[in-house]
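User: Please fill in residues for this 582-position structure.
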């Protein structure tokens, strides 16, 4: 053991604790698939108390800036490892300046961004471009602290009638800057929330309030993917329609940070007719933010045709979305446990429509049957066919899924009825058969197969005969009397296959010779030898092994070379444990 005393590592910088709620947009630049760095950074930002709206990788400048404006974020954190960072970051700064919002831009790219380029970007207006030297000097937490410290400023001033007037004027035109700032004022100034809500409701047109669709369900059920598919169909079928999305994700109780990652699954929202705002609960044990009612009223005052509210993952007893939505959709999967667990889910009592998503998973047909039965029991609705029940089987990840088409038609008809006009939704033909990349019966197939074959393979390797003097092994291990530490790397080609080990076992001492000289390395050689062995009458084992070598389709040159290499070992056939001639 070392006699050096144990030296405790020097403590790193402590996480910065912001005085304001800091919201940041994180993404990797266009044509950049290196999302490891940005994922590490956004996790550290969350643990330091930031609400991170994560976009993932391969994002354009316009996507990132539009997201930052709609989310009313204080900063943008982006990584760029593919080159083109000068044009990319400068264009981002220009779009931010054109938006009229104070949004700081932070970037990093390792050694891809040179020091002189960093100076040029700083002079252009980028808040900070971190280099590898900054990482060595500050550490990861120090880099995060620098971002948090500079973004720790309040968003908007305390709402006053004079300050609210220009924002309320932007509501009829659905200005994303006005919508974002009004929602931020409701979140950050709860003491003025009622006054703000009254002003918004007074500015709204009472004769044109859009319906609210509430989407809730268990965590990981695919709510965001399903909402994305519904929004896509809504926009394609109604060229002039608009939609607002309010998405809620939970806050971390320990740090106060949150991952607002629903935008990763939203591919249809990159449209001027769509506005999306992500909210953190900012409280524990709840699926909705306490300011979701303010956000809904602000979006309704902006005269959107549809407002969608998506909650965070809920448990069995959560039904809060029913109090805020005109129409509720409950999204679940087949992984709910036993059928008796359905009796504990309150949303099966209150949901207007139920979707069993990820229907390509195993057990989904049984889940559809059990959910329909529970729906009938809860509603005392025992007549009519199962197809008339508002329970749909969907695969949101599949293109043009027939179940999603039927779900959309049912929701659109109900929403049109709530809005007071005739529906135009039709059930379009779609793909009724899921085509998963891995079929349900093959999920974890190789894992199960390897777990079953592992013990048998290990036992076979322990019982397999090994040559006493193996020229391929003595170069690495002096003695080959016992199997080498890693036989698959050394003697794999000289070990007889399982199909040939059994007949060779009948010849005393022949296993070693035949393993060295006649190795069935090719499938043709192996098949030919096994067929000849089964067809030849039992004779001397030595004669059969020699005949098998002569009848093998392998070339005579290879056989002669193997024989010469084997004969070069003076210990061949003597039972020695080492080969000095190797």
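Assistant: Residues filled in for all 582 positions:
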């Amino acid at each position: 053991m070392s006699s050096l005393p144990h030296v405790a590592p020097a403590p790193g910088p402590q996480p910065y604790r912001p005085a304001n709620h800091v919201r940041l947009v994180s993404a990797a630049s266009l044509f950049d698939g290196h999302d490891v760095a940005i994922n590490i950074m956004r996790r550290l930002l969350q643990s330091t108390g930031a609400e991170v709206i994560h976009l993932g990788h391969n994002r354009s400048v316009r996507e990132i800036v539009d997201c930052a404006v709609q989310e009313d974020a204080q900063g943008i954190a982006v990584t760029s490892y593919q080159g083109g960072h000068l044009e990319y970051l400068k264009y981002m700064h220009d779009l931010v300046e054109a938006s009229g919002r104070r949004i700081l831009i932070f970037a990093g790219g390792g050694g891809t961004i040179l020091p002189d380029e960093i100076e040029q970007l700083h002079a252009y207006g980028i808040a900070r471009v971190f280099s590898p030297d900054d990482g060595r000097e500050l550490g990861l937490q120090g880099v995060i602290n620098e971002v948090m410290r500079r973004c720790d400023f309040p968003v908007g001033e305390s709402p006053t009638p004079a300050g609210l007037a220009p924002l309320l004027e932007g509501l009829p035109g659905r200005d994303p800057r006005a919508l974002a700032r009004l929602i931020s004022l409701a979140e950050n100034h709860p003491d003025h929330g009622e006054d703000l809500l009254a002003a918004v409701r007074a500015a709204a047109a009472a004769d044109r309030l859009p319906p609210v669709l509430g989407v809730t369900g268990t965590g990981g059920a695919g709510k965001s993917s399903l909402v994305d598919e519904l929004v896509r169909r809504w926009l394609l079928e109604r060229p002039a329609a608009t939609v607002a999305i309010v998405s809620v994700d939970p806050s971390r109780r320990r740090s106060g940070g949150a991952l607002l990652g629903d935008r990763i699954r939203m591919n249809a929202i990159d449209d001027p007719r769509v506005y999306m705002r992500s909210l953190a609960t900012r409280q524990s044990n709840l699926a909705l933010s306490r300011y979701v009612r303010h956000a809904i009223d602000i979006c309704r005052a902006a005269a959107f045709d549809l407002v969608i509210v998506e909650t965070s993952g809920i448990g069995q007893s959560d039904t809060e979305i029913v109090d805020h939505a005109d129409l509720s959709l409950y999204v679940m999967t087949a992984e709910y446990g036993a059928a008796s667990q359905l009796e504990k889910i309150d949303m099966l009592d209150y949901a207007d429509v139920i979707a069993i998503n990820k229907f390509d998973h195993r057990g989904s047909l049984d889940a559809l049957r059990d959910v329909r039965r529970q729906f009938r029991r809860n509603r005392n609705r025992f007549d009519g066919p199962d197809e008339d029940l508002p329970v749909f089987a969907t695969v949101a990840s599949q293109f043009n899924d027939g179940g999603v088409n039927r779900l959309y038609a049912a929701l659109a008809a109900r929403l049109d009825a709530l809005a007071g006009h005739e529906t135009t939704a039709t059930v379009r033909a779609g793909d009724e058969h899921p085509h998963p990349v891995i079929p349900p019966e093959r999920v974890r197939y190789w894992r199960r197969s390897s777990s079953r074959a592992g013990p048998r393979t290990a036992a076979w390797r322990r019982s397999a005969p090994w040559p006493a003097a193996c020229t391929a092994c003595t170069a690495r291990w002096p003695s080959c009397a016992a199997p080498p530490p890693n036989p698959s790397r050394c003697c794999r080609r000289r070990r007889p296959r399982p199909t040939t080990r059994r007949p060779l076992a009948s010849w005393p001492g022949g296993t070693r010779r035949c393993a060295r000289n006649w190795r069935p390395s090719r499938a043709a050689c192996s098949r030919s030898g096994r067929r000849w062995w089964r067809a030849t009458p039992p004779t001397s084992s030595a004669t059969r092994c020699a005949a098998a070598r002569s009848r093998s389709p392998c070339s005579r040159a290879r056989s002669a070379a193997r024989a010469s290499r084997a004969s070069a070992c003076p210990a061949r056939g003597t039972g020695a444990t080492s080969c000095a001639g190797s």
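For context: Confidence is low (pLDDT under 50) at residues 466-494, 507-542, 551-555, 570-582.
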